[in-house]
Amino acid sequence: MKTAATIAAGSVAIALAVLALKAAAWWLTGSVALLADALESIVNVAAAVAALIAIRFSALPADANHPYGHAKAEYFSAVLEGALIIVAAILILYSAYGAWNAPRAPEAAATGLVIATLATGLNAGWSAFLFRRGRSLRSPALLADAQHLLSDVITSVGVLVAVALVALTGQLWLDPLMAAVTAVNILFSGWRLMRESLGGLMDEAVPGEMLARIRRLVAEHAAGALEAHDLRTRNAGRFTFVEFHLVVPGAMTVDEAHAICDRVEVALKAEIGESVITIHVEPEGKAKHQGVLVL
């Protein structure tokens, strides 16, 4: 997890740079839409720091109090990030309401737009990098940060368009309107992020497609066994936990049954990556005639 921690530290540096650029754009123009964009970047900084702490904590080895490790710590970071996004949305809505009642034309719009565009481009590039590395490292914290930055990029593009239109047309109401639209968008983004992270904390099963692949691999690599039943799965950070009961002929030796379990475990780990596989071997009298039939 050293790699993930290094990437998370990079996220903190990028978030600080983007915040500085967006704050400068708002200070130059006085645009409430650009203020909304800058407020979201404050959340980005806090979320990036939380992700870094969570990733480092999740990398701690299992101990007596946490025999399954600390991988779920990353979900807490993602939940916190979702909560911070919602707080930012409320602050933006408050600012948009004030600007709607007392609109003002942005100043130095061209310079502010150039600076804000640079910040948006930086966010877009880092978001794409985080998505790629977050998937390869199976890090909920990095993927949550990537999703948040992507949402930020989308709303930032809308803000840039709105500020440009205000400068070109003089329609001052577009500025607070775009700020409000930005707030609503990131509000939904925050809720979706919290929902996905809470699912991990509540030990939701793996997605249906992954579950189907797990069942297929058990059926294909457990030759000599009769069936597998009571298959259960869950995700915890970058780890996938899989457990099931494997029914074998009553006359089969322990060595033979263990060899089957080894084959299945190797196949599953090759498919799903970092995982914890638990197989309970049972004699044929325990067969339930349901679940996974061995090919």
UniProtKB/TrEMBL annotation:
PANTHER family noted in UniProt: MITOCHONDRIAL METAL TRANSPORTER 1-RELATED
Subcellular location: Cell membrane
Keyword Membrane: yes
Membrane-spanning parts: 41-63, 75-97, 109-129, 149-170
Similarity comment: Belongs to the cation diffusion facilitator (CDF) transporter (TC 2.A.4) family.
Pfam families, sorted: Cation_efflux, ZT_dimer
UniProt-recorded name of the protein: Protein p34
GO CC term (a single one): plasma membrane
Domain Cation efflux protein cytoplasmic: 207-284
InterPro entries (alphabetical): Cation_efflux, Cation_efflux_CTD, Cation_efflux_CTD_sf, Cation_efflux_TM, Cation_efflux_TMD_sf, CDF_Transporter
UniProt membrane topology term: Multi-pass membrane protein
Chief place where the protein resides: membrane
Source domain of life: Bacteria
Protein keywords: Cell membrane, Membrane, Transmembrane, Transmembrane helix, Transport
Example GO molecular function: ferrous iron transmembrane transporter activity
Listed GO biological process terms: intracellular zinc ion homeostasis
Gene source species: Plastoroseomonas arctica
